[in-house]
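Database export, one record per block. Field names are fixed; values are copied verbatim from the stored entry.
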Amino acid sequence: KGWQAVMTVESVKDGDVFLTYLEEVLCPTLQTGQVVVMDNLSAHKVDGVQELIHATGAELPGLQPDRALLVGRQTTFAPAQGPVSGCF
């Protein structure tokens, strides 16, 4: 399928912004059995994140802190032609 529920934010990416993204963009597109992979950004760790994702039936596997950035950025964005930053 490729990427889904992409959002660009030109401000600080804090927990409130991430929760809004989950509620209004990502969670409405998730289906039971899909997997959400996040890195160790502090906004991903605020109260309510896991509950919102699990309520959709999607899975949120735990990643080792040192593996989160490797899996989340290097593997995912390896094909990208330029630098990638500020992504949720």
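Remark 1: The longest helix spans residues 65-77.
Remark 2: The radius of gyration is 13 Å.
End of record.
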